[in-house]
Amino acid sequence: MESKLFIALLVAALLAFSAAKDDDSNGSDSGSESMGSWGDSFEEKEEDCDRLVDGSDDNNGDCDLTDGLEEVKDKCDKCDEDDKIKITNWIASLKIEISVKVTVEERLILASASIMKFQMENPTVYELIQFKNVSSWGMLSYFTKVVEVRQTTKVESLVTLDDEDNCPLFDALMNCTGDSYEQQSAVNALINETLLEICGDMTLSVTKKNVKIFEALSKFFSINTEWQSSFFQFKIQGFGTFQQFYQITKSFYQKTQVDVILEGEVEECGFMVSFKNQLQLIKADMTISASVKSTLSLFYDR
Fold first, then answer.
1. Would you tell me which of 4, 17, 55, 204 could form a disulfide with 208, CB atoms 3.0–4.6 Å apart?
2. Cβ contacts of 150-158, under 8 Å, gap ≥ 24
3. What start and end residues bound the annotated signal peptide (predicted)?
4. Nearest CA to 302 among 104, 21, 46?
5. Integer Cα distance of 157 and 141 in angstroms
6. Residue 212: how many other CB atoms lie within 10 Å
7. Which of 292, 280, 297, 254 is nearest to 2 (CA)?
8. 3-state secondary structure labels for all residues of the chain
9. Is residue 1 predicted with pLDDT exceeding 80?
10. Is-contact 134 143, C-beta < 8 A?
11. pTM more than 0.85
12. CA distance 233 to 15
């Protein structure tokens, strides 16, 4: 079971629980901004997402997203000076990336790719800001998820074989290798021995096909760990980065694991066991407020 999947489920469920508590308290607005933002419908979040990068092409990258990230940096109490320098440098590079004259959707994809790259290169810093509210829109971690859902509709075309048993995914993988004979050989083996059969299997649903692709890519990168970073930054024309494609296939896989982590008796299922263990650590952490501990305990009991 992947710890990140558990954390995502826990946060989503906890925020839903917090929103329900607010409703029970005669519509009180006592919840935090970020918690309230999760109460909005996904459709509203997706529709409002465009405004975050609106105007970035005419304002040297300045927009609601970058302004919001500046506020996140300034309000991050747990970020030290080195962390804030990393965030500042990232915002500067993000502005350059989204100052281009492309559609709003393409700028959203560029911004999402930048966030995912920052997360991969600075995981500790990202953990400090991922649940911070950006420009009253919602949590930073939710931004990449909204963009991911938009991109999901394009994934099927990337893995559909043509008359020559080729597809955009195979082209992208080969382009990632550059002039490296070792990488070319490994990718050729991955395509011909595994991916070709998966992509050509017409009996597989979109979900099952993407799950199998994720499992194949995950195994490939577990063997060739040192290649992952460079492969992830390669761009797939008309789609985004290879990292974004990989994340979407991973999400398909994670969805199939939800039933697995909820199987069995209530107190014995994987989700509740992990939640209980984490709750015990939280209760022992003197830096976490009593109100947060109380909310988590109430959620666990419910």
1. 204
2. 150/46, 150/105, 150/108, 151/109, 151/239, 151/240, 151/244, 151/248, 152/248, 152/251, 154/238, 154/239, 155/206, 155/210, 155/245, 155/248, 155/249, 156/206, 158/236, 158/239, 158/245
3. 1-20
4. 21
5. 26
6. 20
7. 254
8. CCHHHHHHHHHHHHHHHHHHHHHHCCCCCCCCHHHHHHCCCHHHHHHHHHHHCCCCCCCCCCCHHHHHHHHHHHHCCCCCHHHHHHHHHHHHHHHHHCCCCCCHHHHHHHHHHHHHHHHHHCHHHHHHHCCCEECCCEEHHHHHHHHHHHHHHHHHHHCCCCCCCCCHHHHHHHHHCCCCHHHHHHHHHHHHHHHHHHHHCCCCCHHHHHHHHHHHHHHHHHHCHHHHHHHHCCEECCCEEHHHHHHHHHHHHHHHHHHHHCCCCHHHCHHHHHHHHHHHHHHHCCCCCHHHHHHHHHHHHC
9. no
10. yes
11. no
12. 32
Nearest by Cα to 249 from 209, 197, 210, 201: 210
pLDDT confidence of residue 107: 96
* pLDDT at residue 222, as a whole number: 96
Separation between Cα atoms, residue 28 and residue 19, nearest integer Å: 10
Q: What's the token pair of residue 148?
A: 């991911």
Average pLDDT value for the chain: 86
Please name the amino acid found at residue 34.
S
Across residues 3-20, what is the average pLDDT?
47
Sign of CA pseudo-dihedral 106, 111, 115, 118:
positive
Return the structure tokens found at 268.
């014995």
